[in-house]
Design a protein that fits this description.
Blueprint: E1 4-9, E2 24-25, E3 28-29, H1 35-43, H2 48-53, H3 55-63, E4 77-82, H4 90-97, H5 118-128, E5 134-138, H6 141-155, E6 159-162, E7 167-173, H7 174-195, E8 200-207, E9 214-215, E10 220-223, H8 231-237, E11 242-245, H9 248-251, E12 259-261, H10 265-278, E13 284-289, H11 291-297, H12 302-319, E14 328-332, E15 351-356, E16 361-367, H13 369-379
């Protein structure tokens, strides 16, 4: 029996989204953003394994641009997928890859100071047991922790911030504030935010002292539940195991998930390798590697992003020979986050769909939900979600 592995390299977009002019970083539309092509242009990029699967060809198909140094003839199956959900955020991309485009407009908080309405601030204070909050604006997470961390240690108030995404993030010191207290705070306020169609409340714990603050791996996303059954639930209902790696369990509110493995990207790739070696027939492994996005895209670090892509490329070169006969492996992304672009937010882009296990062929332009339909087809799972199989 076949197995399926879906690896989302978070934010690795390839430009060309036809509606990019409707999405912005500040006042600048995302038109022309291209995460992979611009990293290759500005930092150099050597990813022979991804390129052999079709990454360079997918960039050109998606955007008409050529990514410098990515020009080999693909030996995998490759295409470019276009999102239809009205957002460039993590839940939208992942749900649609799992066959459920978002049917509503997300609520986003205005880029004002303060950003949150008084009733939300009061809700946070009541749940946290504090007299106020810090931040209360659009910001990068690392920046706001640096700016507000000292005041947080003095007052005990949580650091609350948002972005162009539909999200409310709360940062707090694991020791001074307490990790469990932070998680309980986010869990308690999440239902109210979800009623507003805010996609996620994210706990962002950190450690260290003033000048040396560092976020930990204990992040937790409290995401609104998908509005319809996803690929994960169809696979599980058919009697197969679904292994989640990374923040997949949070994104899907653990619906259709049997096993969850978390950690930083290096540890997550280790989990993927273990599952490739040992997982039983019929399984679906759904993985997200977030550090492309969180460490390099939002921080607008092309060189760091290039280095992380090259690290993953080397790891993928070790994974592919370990795949079993009949296995399907798909590498894709959920949105863009061009580290050469203005601002700090995601960029609206098409994403690559790179496939190992079905031979070398061009798949053309795809829908995100075609990924779900194809995996269901491969696993012979009854499926009533959106998308068409490219197998």
């Amino acid at each position: 029996m076949a197995r399926a592995f879906l690896i989302v390299i978070d934010s690795v977009g390839i430009g060309g989204a036809p509606d990019a002019d409707q999405f912005f970083n500040g006042d600048l539309p995302d038109t022309g953003a291209n995460t992979v092509a611009h990293i290759a242009r500005d930092a150099g990029l050597k990813v022979p394994t991804l390129d052999a699967l079709g990454l360079g060809a997918a960039v050109t198909l998606a955007s008409g641009e050529k990514a410098a140094g990515l020009d080999v003839e693909p030996s995998g199956a490759w295409g470019a997928a276009t999102e239809v959900s009205p957002g460039k955020d993590t839940p939208s991309g992942h749900w649609e890859l799992a066959g459920v485009p978002v049917p509503w407009d997300w609520h986003v908080f205005p880029d004002t100071d303060p950003a949150f309405p008084e009733e939300i601030t009061a809700l946070i204070c009541a749940a946290a047991g504090t007299d106020g909050i810090l931040g209360n604006r659009h910001s990068s997470g690392t920046v706001v922790i640096e700016e507000e961390g000292e005041a947080h240690l003095k007052t005990g108030w949580p650091i609350c911030y948002t972005s162009a995404d539909s999200v409310l993030q709360i940062a707090a010191h694991e020791d001074a504030f307490g990790l469990e207290r932070l998680l309980d705070l986010c869990k308690d306020i999440a239902p109210t935010l979800h009623e507003m169609k805010v996609g996620r409340v994210i706990a962002r714990p950190f450690l260290g002292d003033v000048g040396t603050f560092e976020r930990t791996a204990n992040r937790k996303d409290f995401a609104i539940a998908p509005p319809a059954p996803t690929l994960c639930e169809y696979v599980q209902k058919a009697g197969h195991k679904v292994h989640a790696v990374g923040k997949i369990g949070d994104i899907f509110s653990m619906r259709g998930i049997d096993d969850l493995r978390k950690g930083r990207d290096a540890a997550l790739v280790g989990h993927i390798k273990d599952l490739v070696d040992d997982a039983e027939d019929g399984v679906f492994v759904f993985a997200n590697l977030v550090e492309f996005d969180s460490e390099y895209g939002h921080r607008r670090d092309p060189a760091g992003y290039a280095s992380h892509l090259e690290w993953f490329d080397n790891e993928l070169a070790q994974i592919l020979p370990r795949m079993h006969d009949g296995d399907l492996l798909i590498v894709t992304a959920d949105h863009g986050n061009d580290p050469t672009w203005s601002g700090t937010d995601h960029t609206r882009e098409r994403v690559p769909v790179l496939v190992h296990g079905i031979g070398a062929r061009a798949l053309g332009h795809l829908a995100f939900s075609d990924v779900a339909a194809s995996i269901a087809n491969h696993l012979k799972v009854p499926y009533a979600g959106q998308g068409k199989s490219f197998l």
